[in-house]
Amino acid sequence: MRRGFNLLMAIFMLLLLAGLAMLTLSYARIHAHFFADTYTKEQAELFADSVTEAALMRIEANESKLDFLSPKGRFRAHVQVERCYVLPSYKDENANCKRGINVTFIDTPASNGYMMLRIEVNSTKDAFLSPIRIYRRTLQRP
Question: Quick check: is 127 in a domain?
């Protein structure tokens, strides 16, 4: 009688330990997925910052193509100039605002030449555990 009870107790302990091991592995998988997503999202945000600076350089060079691809091909970015803020007297002199961009006339000389950029960064297909999309609107002066 005692041997049978010890055998049942041993089986119960093994099942309990197996359940705890499965629970631990499940939490480890969830945390690994979370850290991987956080890491790739941070990479996408840093790429968006770099794209902002590169777009400003291309705007200064009067280039119209404002699409970017990350060096390893993980992210694709598209930049669109939404609005250009100029003084009415500087409209003809500002070459960055001559390309069909919506021009808003302002009254303060300190804000002359600012541009509102819309930046969209997307992860490429099957590059990560979950798709990443960052959408940012920023006011910059080239």
Answer: yes
What Rg do the C-alpha atoms of the chain give, in angstroms? 28
Residue 127 belongs to what domain range? 40-140
How many domains does the chain fold into? Answer: 1
Q: How far apart are CA 22 and CA 100, in angstroms?
A: 60
Question: Cβ neighbours of residue 92 under 8 Å, at least 6 residues apart?
Answer: none
Report the SS3 class of residue 9: helix
- pTM here is 0.74
Residue 134 is assigned to a structural domain of this protein:
yes
Q: Both tokens of residue 20?
A: 């705890």
23 three-state secondary structure:
helix
- Encode pLDDT of 95-122 as tens digits: 556 566 677 777 777 777 788 889 999 9
The reply to whether 34 falls in a domain is no
The verdict on residue 16 lying in a domain is no
